[in-house]
Design brief:
Length: 322
Amino acid sequence: MMLGQRADVASIDAINKELGRDLPVSKRFALYVNDLSPISLNNTVDSSSHAFADSKKYGSFTSIAHFSKYALILKVPYLSRSYQSQDLVMGILTDALPGTALLAVVALALAAVIGIALGIWSALRYQQWPDKLNMFISVLGMSVPSFFAGIVIAWLFGFVWSDVTGLNMTGSLYEVDPFNGEILQWKNIILPAITLGIRPLSVIVQLTRSSMLEVLSMDYVRTARAKGLSMWTVIVKHALRNALNPVITALSGWFGSLLAGAVFIEYIFGWKGVGKVTVDALEHYDFPVVMGSVLMVSIFFVLINILVDLLYARLDPRVRVE
């Protein structure tokens, strides 16, 4: 793939040796982990000068210690290079990550605000028509696959009704104009954010509703209402804060899922992000980019779960982080 279909055997062997594909799988894995680690052990050219053999690969680094022909260094994790463009995978992903993060944040913000509001409304109108309507819509939202919803929404609002909505079927945050260069297009985030937020919104509606119903039956809520406090005050100051724990758990899990699940949405709407980069890499068998994107999403999952555990202690005094 890197050399073309007419590449000779000698050139292919040279590329395999450069990438370490001629080594055993166990050694290749060890070298890959060594490249990923910010503190890694690497060969030096000779023990007297301590010249670093992989300086071109890693770029800037800080030498910590030397052991004969080896050096312990501090560096930026190295995710190899793209087979297609020969660009650093880290650079490709960091360039695409802001688009995915922005899309996930906007989608989750819409889902949280609308979902919590509808969940509270359903709890206050339990078994009435607003509650039944919200439950029907939420079940429908969870049942429809994201890629199908994306195609329908893009076709309806970006093509059939485009004269009314003024929206496009595809487009990223920045579009290139031949005369004005890059132009910021905030409207392009509307359709993918709505599509990406449908499923978490449906889950948040049901979680908020069930949690609010449980909290509203508690003794301290009945006491607050017996003191003459308005329903709005009871909900905001007493009920909602205690009902948000399962919702926050869902939000944290969905944020990580949105980073991963944005693959189909970004591809359908042509949104520049990690998802679209991953799909393009899969189409061209660009495995270093695919491995790097999966690793990046996994790291975000771990970090988000840690932040949520810390947030629990702020929202619920009964929870303490040891």
